[in-house]
Each structure stands twice: as structure tokens, then as C-alpha cells.
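Feature request, filed as a ticket because there's no other form

It would be nice if the structure record came with a short human-readable summary line next to the C-alpha cells. Right now we just get the raw output. Example of a typical job, pasted below so the devs can see what we mean:
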Amino acid sequence: MSVLRYLPATPDNALISDIVVLGYFGPIAVNFLVNVIVGILFFLRRVWASGVPRWLLITNFVFFVLQIILFNAFNTLH
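Raw output as currently delivered:
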């Protein structure tokens, strides 16, 4: 079920293309920023004092790696 079907149609589908672009590049940028901050905390030896659980740090890094792999795979197909 998509919310977009209840919105009025735009002539050039600008809203849909904006949502696709934000959904494609947004998560990678946010995840990259989070991993950079965690990396800085790791090198300052304060990552464990920050109170973030280890499982969350590991899972976030794994998802970041998967995002980069999928991003590169889809860009090489075109």
C-alpha cells in the first residue's frame, strides 16, 4: 500500500523521483556519518564508554558494508 496513490498526480512525477532519490542516497549518507563518528570514538578509545551496545555497532557496520556492495552492484549494471 502506497501513500502516493492518494496524492494528486504531478505532471512530471517530481514527488516520486524525489522520494526515490532520498531513499537511494539518504540511508548511505546517514550510515556513513554514523560509522565515521563511531570510528573516531574507537580511535579515541571512547566507543565503549559511549553506552552504545556492541551488537548495534556491529550490525550497523555490517549493514553499511552491504549498502556499499549493493550500491556498487547496481551502478555497474547500468
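Something like this underneath would help us a lot:
The CA atoms of residues 70 and 76 lie 10 Å apart.
Helices lie at 14-43, 54-77.
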